[in-house]
Structure formats: structure tokens, C-alpha cells
């Protein structure tokens, strides 16, 4: 499993000077950054399958940073969010934190504080990305199972012994053993516990 693209920091702020300053800072730190003047243009451009994080102003035309965060959560877009706030908007930023934002950063920015916050957000985003990729890989493997192999897998992960599986499916114990071996091979599971963890991912 390989990551095909770098993590992207999405900067969303209606203030062009702040957007430019943030992008320059991020690129100087070796980050990949994209800038947007509002939430709508960000959402229209977003590829949610790629890792990254969002740095959004709390007050913008259209969706505010807090409203954008809520929209992303509702839509299943799991990029971590950092909220940029002015002094008068701290209460809104705190609410964003309560609703799952990684951090809020007050203007004017301390570059070191911002860098640490973005590092944290990108770490979280990359973990989510890896988990999502791992689940997709497991789903791809599971799709290769025959209906009978899937039945056997479901019973195996319930802890049923081969004899009980054979009785439940009206097949021989030897046939169960063959199907079980094929399930382990196709799912690339090295142990029963690993197969159980895979099955749990499929039902999560």
C-alpha cells in the first residue's frame, strides 16, 4: 500500500494577503498548499480521497469555518481542521474545537505555533488516510471471495469450529478446511486474529 500523493494543506480565507502569507510560509516549510477564498470553492476543488488538512478562517462569506467543519463532518470528509480566528471570534473557535477541530490559531500568527499545529493535523490526516486505504484493500480482497467462502469466513470469525461450520452449511469438514484455507489466502490473513480484525473493519 503506497501513498500516491503528498499531504495537502488547504488554506481557506477571504483575505488574499493572509492566504498568500500562509501559502508562502507552508511552501517554505516544504508543504504542499492550496488556497481558496471561500468554502464553496474549496469544496468544489476537493478530492477527499487524498490526505491533508484544512486551515480555515472562522469568518468568511458563505460558510464560516465552523459551518464548513460541520458540513465536512456531515459529508464524511475526514480532513482535520484548524480554525483561524481574530480576537473577537475566540468563542466561535472554541466551539469548533468542541466539535472536533484540531486547534484554533489567533491572528497575528506565531509561525512556530502554526507549524506545530499543522504538523499535528497532518499526522492525524495521514493516519485517517492509511486507515481508509487499509479498509479499501480489505474490501477489495473480500470481493474476491466466493459466496461459500464468505459464509465460511463469517462463521470462522464467530469462533465456530470446523465441525460446527460443516454442520451449519451441510458440507464436509474437509470442504470447510479447504474453504477456510482459501479465505485465509485471499484475505492475506496470517492468523485467525488478523482475519477477525479484517472482518470487523468490513462491518464498521
CATH H level, superfamily name of the largest domain: Response regulator
Beta-strand proportion: 5-15%
Strand order of the largest sheet: 2-1-3-4-5
Supply Rg: 23 Å
Count of β-strands: 5
CATH class of the largest domain: Alpha Beta
**Judging from the principal axes of the Cα atoms, what is the shape?**
elongated
Order of helices and strands: EHEHEHEHEHHHHH
Distance between the termini: 21 Å
The CATH architecture designation of the largest domain is 3-Layer(aba) Sandwich
Q: Give the biggest beta sheet.
A: 5 strands, parallel
Q: Uncertain spans, ≥5 residues at pLDDT below 50?
A: none
The tally of helices reads 9
- Structural class comes to alpha/beta
CATH topology of the largest domain: Rossmann fold
Average pLDDT metric: 90
Supply the number of structural domains: 2
Briefly characterize the structure.
With 204 residues, the chain is an alpha/beta fold. The protein has helices spanning 16-28, 39-45, 65-75, 90-98, 111-143, 147-157, 162-169, 173-187, 192-203, and strands spanning 8-12, 32-36, 52-57, 81-85, 103-106. It has nine helices and five strands.
Can you walk through the features of this model?
- With 204 residues, the protein is α/β, with parallel strands linked by helices.
- The protein has 2 domains: 8-136, Response regulator (Rossmann fold); 144-203, Winged helix-like DNA-binding domain superfamily/Winged helix DNA-binding domain (Arc Repressor Mutant, subunit A, Orthogonal Bundle).
- Helices cover 58% and strands 12% of the residues.
- The chain is built from 9 helices and 5 strands.
- The protein has helices spanning 16-28, 39-45, 65-75, 90-98, 111-143, 147-157, 162-169, 173-187, 192-203, and strands spanning 8-12, 32-36, 52-57, 81-85, 103-106.
- A 5-stranded parallel beta sheet has the order 2-1-3-4-5, with helices on both faces.
- Helix 6 (147-157) crosses helix 8, helix 6 packs across helix 9 (192-203) and helix 7 packs across helix 8.
- The radius of gyration is 23 Å and the shape is elongated.
- The chain starts with 7 loop residues before the first strand and ends with a helix.
Amino acid at each position: 500500500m503506497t501513498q500516491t500523493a503528498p499531504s495537502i494543506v488547504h488554506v481557506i480565507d477571504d483575505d488574499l494577503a493572509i492566504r498568500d502569507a500562509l501559502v508562502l510560509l507552508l511552501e517554505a516549510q516544504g508543504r504542499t498548499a492550496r488556497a481558496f477564498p471561500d468554502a464553496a470553492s474549496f469544496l468544489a476543488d476537493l478530492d477527499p480521497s487524498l490526505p491533508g488538512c484544512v486551515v480555515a478562517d472562522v469568518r468568511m462569506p458563505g460558510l464560516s469555518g465552523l459551518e464548513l467543519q460541520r458540513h465536512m463532518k456531515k459529508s464524511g470528509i475526514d480532513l482535520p481542521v484548524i480554525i483561524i480566528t481574530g480576537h473577537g471570534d475566540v468563542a466561535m473557535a472554541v466551539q469548533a474545537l468542541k466539535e472536533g477541530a484540531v486547534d484554533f490559531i489567533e491572528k497575528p500568527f506565531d509561525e512556530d505555533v502554526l507549524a506545530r499545529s499543522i504538523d499535528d493535523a497532518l499526522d492525524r490526516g495521514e493516519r485517517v488516510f492509511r486507515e481508509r486505504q487499509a479498509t479499501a484493500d480489505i474490501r477489495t480482497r473480500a470481493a474476491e471471495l466466493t459466496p461459500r467462502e464468505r459464509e465460511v469466513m463469517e462463521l470462522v470469525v464467530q469462533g465456530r469450529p470446523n465441525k460446527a461450520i460443516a454442520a451449519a452449511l451441510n458440507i464436509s469438514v474437509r470442504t470447510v478446511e479447504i474453504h477456510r484455507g482459501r479465505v485465509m489466502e485471499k484475505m492475506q490473513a496470517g492468523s485467525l486474529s488478523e482475519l477477525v480484525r479484517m472482518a470487523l473493519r468490513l462491518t464498521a
